[in-house]
Every structure is written in C-alpha cells, then in structure tokens.
Amino acid sequence: MSAIPTTPASPEVPVWSVDPRTGERREQVAAEAGPQTVDAAVLSAHDARGALTDRSVRSAFLRTAAESLEEAREELVAVSDAETALGATRLTGELARTCYQLRAFADAVDEGAFLDVIISHPDATATPPIPDLRRYKVPLGVVAVYSASNFPFAFSVAGGDTASALAAGCPVVVKAHPDHPATSEATVAVLRRAADRHGIPAGVVGLVHGFDAGVALVEHPLVAAAGFTGSVRGGRALFDAAAARPVPIPFHGELGSLNPVLVTGPAAAERAEEIGAGLAASMTMGVGQFCVKPGLVLAPADASGDELVKALAQSLADVAPGVMLDHRMRDNFVAGLAERAELPDVEAPVSPGATDAHTVGAGVLTVPAHKLADGAGGAHDLLLEECFGPVTVVVRYEDQAQADAVLDRLPGNLTATLHVSAEEAATGSAADLLARLTPLAGRVLVNSWPTGVAVAPAQQHGGPYPATTSTSTSVGLTAAERWLRPVAYQNTPEALLPPELRDDNPLGLPRVVDGRREG
Amino acid sequence: MSAIPTTPASPEVPVWSVDPRTGERREQVAAEAGPQTVDAAVLSAHDARGALTDRSVRSAFLRTAAESLEEAREELVAVSDAETALGATRLTGELARTCYQLRAFADAVDEGAFLDVIISHPDATATPPIPDLRRYKVPLGVVAVYSASNFPFAFSVAGGDTASALAAGCPVVVKAHPDHPATSEATVAVLRRAADRHGIPAGVVGLVHGFDAGVALVEHPLVAAAGFTGSVRGGRALFDAAAARPVPIPFHGELGSLNPVLVTGPAAAERAEEIGAGLAASMTMGVGQFCVKPGLVLAPADASGDELVKALAQSLADVAPGVMLDHRMRDNFVAGLAERAELPDVEAPVSPGATDAHTVGAGVLTVPAHKLADGAGGAHDLLLEECFGPVTVVVRYEDQAQADAVLDRLPGNLTATLHVSAEEAATGSAADLLARLTPLAGRVLVNSWPTGVAVAPAQQHGGPYPATTSTSTSVGLTAAERWLRPVAYQNTPEALLPPELRDDNPLGLPRVVDGRREG
User: Fold this and answer.
1) Which pTM does this prediction carry?
2) Is ipTM over 0.90?
3) How confident is the model at residue A2 (pLDDT cuts 50, 70, 90)?
4) Which of A176, B140, B329, B402 could cysteine-pair with A184, CB 3.0–4.6 Å?
5) What is the rounded distance in angstroms from the CA atom of residue A379 to the CA atom of residue A382?
6) Does residue B315 form part of some domain?
7) Contacts (Cβ under 8 Å, ≥6 apart) of A505
8) Residue B48: which CATH number?
9) Which residues in B lie closer than 8 A to residue A464 (C-beta atoms)?
10) By three-state DSSP, how is residue A297 classified?
11) Which region, left, alpha or beta, applies to residue A380 given φ > 0 means left and ψ of -120 to 50 means alpha?
12) Could you tell me which residues belong to the region Disordered (chains A, B) (predicted)?
C-alpha cells in the first residue's frame, strides 16, 4: 500500500480500512478531516481553477489520469478488493470502465460541444431588436463529490462526478466513502501525479474523510456545486444543507431506486424461465448492491408467473453467498428482510439473509399485488422502499388495472423495465405500457436488465426523486452539464471576446450561429 | 373590462385592482384562492397535459395566443396602464415583445432541437459495451409561474415562463401579481380562448390570486417545477418551500440584482457626458423598476469621473417624476433611500425620493469606494443591496485595486457592464476586466446598457445567486430547458419507440447519432 495520506493523521478520529470478509481493521489510512482541513482542501481546489482553463490541458490530464490508473491497476484492485470484497474480476472491469469514462470525457472536452456556443448577430427586425449576443458555458467552480460505497472506482474518487467536473473545468474535493478509504487515498495519489505531469496543482483533486467533513464541504462558501451517490437519508440531508446555504448551490444526488420491472402475461407465457434466470443474475450482481438492481418485479398471478418465480428461485439457489460492503449494510439488509418477510401474505420462495457471520445469501419475496395496490398507509408500503442487497420483491398481479395501481404508487426511479412477448414488441401493442413506465424513470428498458450502465452520449442515469435530486444524469457525456453555467456577452468587441465566441471560430467549435448549426 | 373571473368571487378576501396614480381601488377582480381552488387549478392543468403532447398543436396554440393578444391589445394595454401606471407606449411595446416571444417559442417547438435527441447505437468495443440507447427530453408536468410586478405582460401570465413551459409541453398555473390582477384575468381569458381553438382544455393555463395560494401552489404534489420573478425575500421563501417538499422540485427564481457597471478611467476621459446621459436613461427606464437597472456604478474618483456624475445629474434633472407600481413599493423606495442617504460620506448630487403623494423623482447617490472596499459588516453594506426604483449608486474608486475590492464584495447579478475607451476595446487591453466581471453575472455587456433584454437564442437572463436560484435563463429559447427532463430508452424495439427516437427520423428532428450531428 503506497497511498500518500492527504490529511494529517490525528490520534483523535482515525480512519480505518476494514476487511468486510472478517470485519477486522486492516490499517489506519488517515484521520477524519476537521473544519480547517476541509477549508484548506477547498481553497487549494479553488486556487487550481486557472490550471484547468485551457481545454487541451484538461483533456490531456484526463487521458494521463486514465493511463496512470491502468498502470496502477494491480495495486488498486488489490487494495479495493481487500476493503470492499467485490472481487478482482469485477473490480478490474470497474477500473477499466473508469478509465474508459475519463477518456470519453477527454474526447468530449476536445470536441467542445458541451460549451453550447450560441451566437446571435444583431437583428433590428426582432421585438425588441437583438443586439450582438454570444453565449457559452463556463465552469461553476469547486465541485464537492461524495463517493459511493458500491463503486470504489466508477462512482468514487476518479469516477463519473470527478471526471465530468474536471472535463467541465471544475476542480473537485472528494468526500471519501468510509468503506474504501485506502482505495480513495491510492486513487487520489494517482490522479495527483497525473495532474503534476501537466503542471496542474495537486489541489485540483482534494480528498477528505469523515461524516462531519462531508457536511462542512457542502456548506463551504467556495464550493459551487455537489455530486452525490448514496442513500436517501444521507443524500437528502446534504441536499437540504445545500439548499439552506445563504447562497444555495446545485446538488446533484443519486439517492435510491426500486427499479421496477413489469412482465406482461404474454412475456411470462413465452419465456418464464429465461426471465427468471435473467432476473436472478441482475439482482445478485455485486451482491445486490447496485443502484439499478431490479428491486420490485410485477409478474402475472397465473401459471406462467408461477413458472417465472420458480425459475428465479432455482437460479438463486445456485448463487453462492456473498460478502456485503460493510457490516452495517449487512445488518441493515438482514433487519430489512426480517421486517419485510413477516408482513402478512409475504412469502419467501428462497429466503434471503445471513448465511454466516460475514456472508449473506440471495433471495426473493413475493406478495399479492392487492396488498400494494389498495392505497397508501399500510405496513406493506415498506415493500416500496429500496432494500440494499441481494433481494427482490415479486408482486403478483391479477390484471393490468392492478399492475397499474401498483405502478401509480411507486416513487421515482433510475430505471423501469418492461418485459414483453415477441409479438407485443413487433406489433407495437405494448407501446402504451412503455408510455406508462416512462414517467417513473430516467431510463426505460425493454426485454433486458437494468444492471450495467453504459458510458454513452445517449445515457441517462438519473430519474425522478428520490432516484435523483435534479433532472440531470451522472453517467454519460451530458453529465458535464451539471457543472457549467451559461454566460452571454453583449456588444463585446472582437478583441475582448473569449476565443470560443469569436466570429472566425479560431478553436473550430461546433456552434449555433443565427439559428444555424455549424460543425 | 371584459375579464372573465376564473376564481369564484368571495366576500372574505377580495382581490382589488388598484390605480397607483391615485392609490384608489378600481374594482374587485376576483377573490383570493383557497386551498381547494388551488387544488382544482392544478388538477385541471395536470389533466390538460395530454393535449400538449402533439408538438404541432402546441406551436399552433402559441401562435394563436400571440395573434389573440395582439387583437386584444387596446383593451389589455388600457387595463394594464390603469393598474400599473407604466404608460401606453411602454405597455404596447411590452405586449409586442410578449407576442414575439410566443412566436419565437412556436418556431422552436416546430424545429424540435430542444428535445435534444441523442442516439447511441450498440457498440461492443466500449467498456462496458454500449447497448442501443436513445435519449430525448420529456415535459416535467405542471409548472407554477409567479408573475412579476414590473412586467405585466412579458414576465406575467403570458410571459416568458408560461411561453417556455407551454413550448416544453407543460401546462401552467400562474400566481397573479397583486399589482395587476385585472390584467392577469384579461390575459388568461385570451390564452384560454386561444387554447379552445386548438381543442386544448382551458385548464392548460390556470390562474390563482393571493399570497397563500402562491405557497399552496409550490407545495402541491402535482406541481413539478416553478418559475418566479420577484423579490429576494419572496423568492427565497418559495425556493425554500420547493426544496423542503417531500419530493423537492426545481425552482427557477429570478430574485434580485445590482447590475454593476465598471467605467474605466480612459472611458470616462473619452466620453463622460455620453456615459452619464446613457446611465440616466437606463436607470430611469420604467421608473427604475427593471430587474436589470444599473444599480451600482464604479466610476473613477478623478475629474473625468466628476464630469460623468455631473452629466448624470443634469440628465436626471430633466426626468419627470414617475408613479411606481404600487404604494408599498413607493414607500419601500423612499425609506430605502433615506436609510442610504444618511450613511457617512454618501452624497446626493440629485436627491431621489417622493415628489408628491403618488410620484417619485429619480436621483443618484455617490460614495467613496473605500467605504465598500474595506470589508464586510459596515453600515455601507446596505449599498450592496438592490434598491428597487429610480436610483443608482456611483462608487468613486481611486485605483483598479480599489475597484476590484468592491467587485469582490458583490453578490451575484443578472448583468455586469464594462465601459471602456475605444483604444481599450480595439487593443484588447480590457480583456482582463471582462474576465473580472464574468464571474459576477449571467450577461456581460461592453459599452452599452443592461436594460432591454432581447428574446434571442444566445440570451442569458439569469446569473449567480441571488440573481437566479439556478443556472438557467428565463429569457431566450433555452428557457424551455427548465421544464424538461431526459429519458433514455434501452434496447427498445422500433415499433415501441416514440417517433422522435426512431432510426428513420419520421419527424425530421435535429439530432446527434453516434456522435455525429444531423440536421
């Protein structure tokens, strides 16, 4: 472990790296950051803004960061596995994704479309007349990034929030997740070496540990925006703090999601086994600790639905017990299951829960739809809350009206999935169902599974609250929009204009000029 | 007055139209909306969503609305002048602008670029592999619009928030401003007749009166977003309410702005008289009741700066007293002036304030820059707050360091203006000053005045808090972005896809396909 501690070790509140496979402390990684340490990190980040002004420096830095992370792969994966138990295969893949993401943002920085250059030349015929107006987007300033427990690379120190913020020209200060402090330190050290190679101060990516540090961060006057991936409780508290500041700031938080799946009768009749097996694979990926885990499945209350549940149960029986990210999550999972399992008419064809002192087994709960469809306030409403871990709730519906009634009761989601038959897909007869699911989520899938979030221009990883606290995405190239604000220059002489806005377009940017798209 | 009351008149809390020229009540227009009336308006709007799905219906409705408002011009201008005292010329111009804006949004709806269609075809070489992903933007739902006092047409019932929300496919419920309830009723009647001509239910534009109704509106579960133009106090209270909801919603508020102006030494030396006269015209437009009124002007503390102040004072002496929008505003203006004028070292070359029981005269206050530059906490900080009405504060600075120190203390603004000499403009030597002003505002002007906000694609009417509570604009075609959220469809069969996202592009939309821009 060659991580460079970024906060002075203090005997008062040590930060430990813990092995979730044993619950034992591995080593003290750092100390929790007090207010002065947070302030210093934010000031250093603020001072590093200028170093990101040049887009070519920014993109080169992002590419070097990707390359350097790849070079450090062996160490990073080992450290991360030791404190998350996610396994070398998964973590190697996640690191590759993280590097791909950094490079994709580097390409986006070079292209410059995200600057949204719009030029309106003077037009005396408009009401009122239009003067010379030139608009583009500028970085907001220091971005606070709150790491996720479940993605130590892709949604943490070098993850999507950081990559998109740096791409936008914003330095970041990351609040490390307590489940992987050593990985966080190792990652930030790599990023800082990469920054140094491009003459960018190390402060461009700050790192702080500790709950109080996270609160201090979102309240710091020089923090201009925040990105968060985590729980509804933690995320909402930080959202509230961001909104309550004397100067409120945008808080882009991804909090929680049930990710409902609707299986039609014809779909179940056509391929109950395939759907059951697919569901088992999706809901147990990463020990059920994915934000897009399908957590609630509407399946018909008929024989083909029975077959689906049977196939799901069979597949789950083959899934080996897994280690969750930490013991607190494990305890929450076990307690949450117990509370759900004892609800009237809830059955457990495969009982999920603790298998030994450290591992948990995957399972499934079933419930008749009328328990959820009959309005709010009942004990069964608990089933409409996310249960983080390898469990899904299959809701058996009698008819479409009952399925609709359950859908009506769902909170916002990252994803919603529709499983239809080949005929329903080909004839378009299921288009109404797709329209039914669209208001529920930011990403709507057909005949596939929501786990696995591609880094692509058309990606949308964000949905109605509590899935996300804003209308933005945290994955995909439009994620950079979150850290920018538009500025328009009026009647500004060519010699004073930023090069991005000059008529001769010296930087070759795509832009819209007098309503016409160029480049 | 042929306004159709939309809320049942109730003797309990009548809503009066008042003549600000006399302070007398003109007529009872409606009654304040209770919780049930607000609920009914929101439900009607919610039910009207489907009628806005077809973009061609939407754009036709917006054009008919513009046409109908023009047809009703004489009546609308008369009603509005009677309760705002803004004068027929100004109001006729404002109505024309409002109609232009509706048509500009209609054109944008037809073009469809705001749908932001992005298609990513499957790519197995990506990490992780990219499935078929197709993203566009869908309407958020019912939008609450809070009318502004100072623009009874352009920022009220048929103003920019309403036009952009309807363009985005969102019905609206407007909270009328108490300064022009009759204008609000007359306007909504015209919009509803226009809606009817396109088969759109009247509820597509709701109207409610009363402070409590405004609070109930932002708290209504079916309200999905809000647009606001008004005071810092009122706007912040509603922003806080929007953020505190169980499901928080986006609140796009334009609250307050000083709109600083920096006049360089060479600019003052070159054209002190022209700048003084231009400033007088800009700051007294609409009796100083513009959100972009230049409220704080940094001028050199030398002879040319003296000349500028003299020219300003001379021009102001020629400005006739004006009637403010209501007597509460007038009282606030007079009280605010008195408090400012009695600060040590503040002088009033032309004393603004009450001229008779109903009118106010324009004026200017001056203060040495060191009173503001020397850090926070002093009584002079009051000069850094907006004073709504025909007054500006000229801050006399000794050197650039002193001017910078004052700029550092400013809150966020809608606009910031730079006046430079011809040489500074031509050689680009003032580029640093432009960069200095950019962080302060959403629109930066050179050698012109901020009043007059063009409706143009490149417009940005929104700046750092408290100018705006989000990074959005409320004027210009990108204003529609506020009322949309992205949705991505994954692996969705062609027959189930919305036509906007089909490969063959049946609607001929501009889009980005696999990174290439089309159309």
Assistant:
1) 0.96
2) yes
3) very low
4) A176
5) 6
6) yes
7) A511, A518, A519
8) 3.40.605.10
9) 247, 485
10) strand
11) alpha
12) 495-519
